[in-house]
Amino acid sequence: MEAYIEKTGLGDILEKIKKQERLSRQDGIRLYESPDLLAVGYMANIVRQRLNGDNAYFIYNQHVNYSNICTNLCKFCAFGREKTSDKAYEMTKEDVADKVRERLDEPITEIHMVGGIHPDLPFSYYTDILQAIKSVRPDVHVQAFTCVEIDHLAKLAGKPVDETLQILMKAGLDSIPGGGAEVFSPRIRKLTCERKLPGEGWLEVAKTAHRQGLKTNATMLYGHIETVEERVDHLDALRQAQDETCGFLAYIPLAFHPKNTAMSDLSSTSGMDDLKSIAVARCFLDNFPHIKAYWVMIGPKMAQIALSFGADDVDGTVKEEIITHMAGAETEQAMSIDALVRIIKEAGRVPVQRGTLYDVIKTY
Ligand code: V47
User: Fold this and answer.
1) Percentage of residues in the chain with pLDDT exceeding 70?
2) Is the pLDDT of residue 333 over 90?
3) Are 250 and 216 spatial neighbours (Cβ–Cβ below 8 Å)?
4) CA neighbor of 313 nearest in space, from 298, 294, 338, 286
5) What is the pLDDT of residue 320?
6) What residues are paired with 111 via a beta bridge?
7) Is 242 in the pocket of ligand 1 (CB under 6 A)?
8) pLDDT tens digit sequence for 68-91
């Protein structure tokens, strides 16, 4: 394979990977532009094996989307609705508690909760829904509110982000998911999500969270109108932020789903791009412990293959995923532990059920 990589013209990058040297922006661009998926995947697999050995992780989690009402109305999103829409909804704190109560008989260890940027819910609503979850399921880890929501909540609270996070942590917030990053490029934000918190703001909230002791994830929404350069710049900004604070747990490339969005004329992502997005990230983000192949967006079959292209995590049981399914995802709404264990074992990895912070719950 290494002689083959030499022939593809990526031999110098392979040498860097083997010597654990940092890849440059130009290296990242060359990897994305290479049609040689196997060469890029081979390099990503070296990094994955070095960092995570044979382990491939999953989690027993539940998604709760407290409201789809959103003032940002991003063009790539099929989930957000204006308050006046007949499809708009917002859950009360009792609704949130009921959602969690419905599944108390299952060994769920994480609640993943996000929603839109709501125009008029008060700050107390957000502390109330955190408390509602913890009152029903005190031991569960609550991973909630993207950096974009946190910025909005700080404005509602009339306090700086660090103080706002402290209040949310007291109410039950344990970590922050990776959504809302989209593509940091101002050009892309202007064309697709003009009203959303800019990239620098997203990164500032993430770093502030890390300084408060909160772990966070990071994402990139790929496969729409972004260029390869903009993708690499996004990864580079994440890598720099991680150098500063070391608080990111996982990077998750999110495959754009066009259906029911204002960008529905675009195609879905290809298999090549899905695997390349995992593999380039694994090579480039040398300071990120984990790369997640989110089966909901790329399908369980592609997530399984991604375990040989740099991913060491496939997310989890999920259940009732709405954001991607509104945008036309054809995957199931949930996966059982048995199914997750099976795809991981077949890929030649050891299935490890993890907690949110990658603590080992059970090895299969
Ligand atoms: O912020 C919106 C993206 C995100 C579409 O942190 C879309 O572990 C594809 O961030 N097609 C929410 N993507 C999901 C998310 C996430 C999911 C799983 C795990 C984690 C984690 C985070 O989904 C949004 C946005 O970036 N999104 N619309 C769409 N049409």
Assistant:
1) 100
2) no
3) no
4) 294
5) 82
6) 62, 142
7) no
8) 999 999 999 999 999 999 999 999
167 CB neighbour count, 10 Å cutoff: 17
Distance of alpha carbon 257 from the chain centroid: 15
Mean pLDDT value across residues 142-159: 98
Place of tokens 């260890």: 109
Residue 88 CA, ligand 1 centroid: distance in Å: 19
Topology of the domain comprising 55-356: TIM Barrel (3.20.20)
Q: Quick one: which atom of ligand 1 is closest to the CA of 179?
A: 10
Assess whether pLDDT exceeds 90 at residue 59: yes
Where along the chain do its domains lie?
55-356
- The pLDDT of residue 334: 86
- Number of C-beta neighbours around residue 119 at 10 A: 10
What is the C-alpha separation between 196 and 281, in angstroms, rounded? 24
3-state secondary structure of 168: helix
CA 245 to chain centre: 18
3-class secondary structure, 158: coil
Q: Where are the alpha helices (DSSP H) in the chain?
A: 2-8, 11-18, 25-33, 37-52, 93-101, 123-136, 147-157, 161-171, 186-192, 199-211, 228-245, 271-284, 295-306, 323-326, 337-346
Question: Which of 251, 155, 168 lies closest to 209 in space, CA to CA?
Answer: 168
Burial pattern 328-363, b for ≥16 Cβ within 10 A else e, equals ebebbeebebeebbbbbeebebebbbbebebeeeee
206 lines ligand 1 (CB under 6 A): no
| Cα 302-288-107 angle, rounded to 5 deg | 65
Q: Is 141 in the pocket of ligand 1 (CB under 6 A)?
A: no
The tokens 């991973």 sit on which residue?
143
Q: What is the reported pLDDT for 2? A: 92
- Each residue's pLDDT tens digit, 193-218: 999 999 999 999 999 999 999 999 99
Q: Whose CA is nearest to atom 23 of ligand 1?
A: 179
Nearest-CA residue for atom 15 of ligand 1: 179
Nearest CA to ligand 1 atom 13: 256
